[in-house]
């Protein structure tokens, strides 16, 4: 059975429903998304494998998810560093940045140097709404991640990938295959082209909204906010595959 996915148009419509009939605020959804990202990172790259984590954030909601994830990672025992080349002046994002500065989490503008000294990278540049060409400085950052041997967890989409058709045919990201992908709310069509470990984080979706958009809720375990899936959408257990 093929893994069911959520198109870009339906993902955007679902978010609107969550913030209208679902009564969620943007900062609530961002907090839940960032928490899911942080838990996926913990499963892929626990602190014992190296505590230095570089979180690279884009200018939109995907970047906000990265900022939230960086805060949670700090409390898990990591030493996060944030690269945020195009910070927004929106009050929500400014508050997220202040929360990190209050924890003495460093911000860097030198991605190349930070990449050389990190143990893991969180790619929170572009998410499901990305389209068009990649502009600098993000093109160079994506190319650096593409060539790096450091393990990477991508948030909702490997940056530069089209949400429907996957990696671009040319340019930054053509050969970008992160070690892990955390799909937020539900998998997107690009997962057909992804070869690494795949997690889903959407343990807040009201059943009525899930039913409306045909989202199959995976079997989350215990207090986990994420679940790892195989290519057929089955939960991957620690000791065995279901």
What does this structure look like?
The protein is α/β, with parallel strands linked by helices. It has helices spanning 8-19, 26-44, 61-75, 91-101, 111-116, 138-147, 207-212, and strands at 52-57, 79-83, 107-108, 120-124, 151-155, 180-184, 197-201, 227-229. Strands 3-2-1-4-5-6-7-8 form an eight-stranded mixed beta sheet. Helix 2 (26-44) crosses helix 3 and helix 3 (61-75) packs parallel to helix 4.
Tell me the layout of helices and strands.
Blueprint: H1 8-19, H2 26-44, E1 52-57, H3 61-75, E2 79-83, H4 91-101, E3 107-108, H5 111-116, E4 120-124, H6 138-147, E5 151-155, E6 180-184, E7 197-201, H7 207-212, E8 227-229
Parallel strand pairs: 1-2, 1-4, 2-3, 4-5, 5-6, 6-7
Antiparallel strand pairs: 7-8
Helix pairs in contact: 2-3, 3-4
Which descriptors would you attach to this protein?
242 residues; alpha/beta; eight-stranded mixed β-sheet; 7 helices; globular; disordered C terminus
